[in-house]
Amino acid sequence: MPGATFKVKAAQWRDAHMQLLNVPFNMVKEHMVNTSWIHMIDLLNSRHEARGKARLSFLKELLEDPDVCSDPEKLDIVKWSAASLYAGASDTVAVLETALVSPLNYS
Q1: Is residue 3, in this structure, part of any structural domain at all?
Q2: CA–CA separation, 11 and 25 (whole Å)
Q3: How far is CA 91 from the centre of its chain?
Q4: Residue 92 domain boundaries
Q5: E-state strands within 6-57
Q6: Helix-strand-coil percent breakdown of the chain, rounded to 5?
Q7: Is 11 a member of any domain?
Q8: For the whole model, what pTM was predicted?
Q9: Which residues are CB-contacts of 56 (< 8 A; sequence separation ≥ 6)?
């Protein structure tokens, strides 16, 4: 049937898109429940704060805010924002890796 190929691709793209949205978000939520992970992050934060370089988690901070968690619309905005940051960071890492490794290949 004409157009059926597009529908199959669209379903695959939708699944990939939803994974990008949900996997990192759910991973942070699961790690927040694990107290040893929170303790480790607090230790890292205290070390960096002592040096004047605080490392915070965008998503963790927002998920700890009761105002955000109680409003489904705000939670959805946070989820999409975190997915955008996650996707942007992966592209940045790939570009930096390519920029650093390419000269080594041609030296």
Answers
A1: no
A2: 21
A3: 12
A4: 16-105
A5: none
A6: 85, 0, 15
A7: no
A8: 0.59
A9: 45
